[in-house]
Write a structure and sequence with these properties.
Mean pLDDT: 81
Oligomer: single chain
Low-confidence stretches: 1-12, 316-353
Strand content: under 5%
Shape: elongated
Number of strands: 6
Number of helices: 8
Strand order of the largest sheet: 1-2
Amino acid sequence: MGGVLTPTSAKTPKRQRFVEPQKLLPVIFVIVVIAGLWAIYGLLHCARLLQLGGWRGSGPIDEAMRSRGAWQTIVFHYFTALLLVCHVRSILVHPGEIPANDPQWEYLPRDGRSPTNWIPMGLQEMKKSGMRRHCKWCGIYKPDRCHHCRVCKTCILKMDHHCPWIYNCVGFYNYKFFFLLLLYTVLDCFFIVFTMAESVKRCFDEPSTRFAIMFFTLFGETLAFFLAVLATMFFGFHIWLMLKAMTTIEFCEKSSPKKEGEGKSGQEQSMYDLGVIGNVRVILGENILLWFFPCSRLKGDGMNFVSEETRLTSDMESSKGIRRRGHQKTPRTTSRRNAGELIGTFTPSPGSR
């Protein structure tokens, strides 16, 4: 009614995880593929090189082949074990959400103000009007880089994307595990492709090879190559995102066509850029010795990304306080004054309801 902002929809209940069995099908498919490649490589390649069971011929043991099979078996299982750990942690670790009952993020839909009526220090992403971003489904203000996932039914900190293969969102707390999952998928698949080529060749060189063995060996080689190519392209994209200090959502937003008068489309430099080493440390952790292991706690809380090292500081100085498109267009003090004026404009009169 007169002078009152339209209230947002009621806060939706958060979805309980793992209660939709049909969405577990992609995860089960991944597990079946991993198990299938493990069985093919282990039984049709490693066992052949190690000359175990039915692969043990009547002649003397080939020590060179056995030695080759030993180190290939060890390396393969090492990569596979890390891949499985990263996959499990990507599924089980929550990507992060806004703390409940935190006054600085509580949103009052009637007048558009937070209970404390102040903007948290370091907050950068604002609406064009200068007002804080809020989620109309969760009924809360959103920190920088936070987005609502309609599948998970909650706001995800530093959301990258929702991944059906892990039945989870990829966000602040589990992005490292997802990144390492891609890394070890690439390493594992290419390792299978290059090393099992010997067994594929042997299948064609030995006319006595049974059809089933030849079929599954060639199938495993082809499947591993196909997955290696796909995973490499996706992993390369995420390496580029990491070095650019961007998420997939931010990349898509910057790549989307701009409306007339909003500037040229293209890849702008991220305001969260810390330099190459700094961007890598943000994703993989401070301790370089733990970069390639699915452990170590990340620095920060997933809600504040501005520091003295970020490129935003120099950008703000060079542009005299003018922010990039999609973020606050005016200096902080001006935004707060405009926000106060806007709130006063929509303050209901004593007689309104």
